[in-house]
Structures
1.
Amino acid sequence: MSTIFIISAPSGSGKSTLVKHLLANVPRLRFSVSYTTREPRGAEKDGENYHFVTREAFETMLAGNEFLEWAKVFDRDYYGTHQGILEDAREHGQDLVLDIDVQGARQLKEKFPDAGAVVTIFILPPSKQELEQRLRSRGEDSDEVIARRLGKAADEIRNYEAYDYVLINRDLREAEATLSAIVRAERVRRARIEDQIRPILDTFKS
């Protein structure tokens, strides 16, 4: 049974960098590439950063109940996780890493209520000022877009109590190590490895 690791954070919190390090350093992880109706930004590539689809295509998949979770952001663009990626991860003995927002995390917690089936991690910036500085340093967004992102960040951060873990990204190397440690620790929860424990216990029977 695959574990779903959900990683959420306001835009600019360093989430992408942390996830990239996690995938490179912890084995048996599959990253879920989300579907979206928004236009690609900068050097983003279809199938690598997102699956870029039309609104009509997304809504057709939505009507067919093909998404594990989905959301509409800023009342404009759709984002969603296709259920096929979880099925593929299970077939290959992998855990799934999702980069999704609070709304999507809530949907998956409700869909998979068993303890440990979904592990949620929220990445928190050190402060609003630091987050704004990171957004401006990217040079991708206008002042209006940055203001909107900061407003959305404030809304997202209010939901931190819904998450299993909160990782404050003050120091990148420390945050990378902590995120990897969370995944490794979750993998050895007793309930998750009962099938490995019982054969060992059997060897001690007289």
2.
Amino acid sequence: MGKEILILIEDGFRDEEVIYPYYRFKEAGFIVKVTGMEAGKEYKGKFGVPVKSDILVSEVNLSNTAVVIIPGGNAPVKMREIKEMVTLVKEAFYQNKIIAAICRGGLMLAEADIIKNKKVTGYMEIARDLESAGGIYLNEEAVIDGNLITSRTPEDLPAFCSSILKLLEAVV
């Protein structure tokens, strides 16, 4: 398994749901790459924090990837309309990479059609979307089911990142 962690990016992301994991996993020794539809583009968070993408979605090499993180905010609403991003999530899932979605990030899991009969959580507003996609919604701070990790809100970021690290330790 690779040492690379991808964070998917699009305008309107929930600022702390990108910044917190970015630095947490850098601190843990991982290579963290912000991945968008344009390399070098500065994307703006919901509260105005700018984050520049490192790599195009089309240039991702999943053999180097350990985790794909999908932040929340309004970004997943846009991301799920981008075929390349949805395909990346789906391919990573079927290659047994860890897929971690927080807040509205679960919309990407539903769009990729990878949560049927899986336990998931997310922002309460998308609970019905997750259930409609076949997911089993649990109102918990972090839910692990196979290679999927989901969390509800920014307040759950410590449990979210700890769950990712726990699953990484189990697969290494």
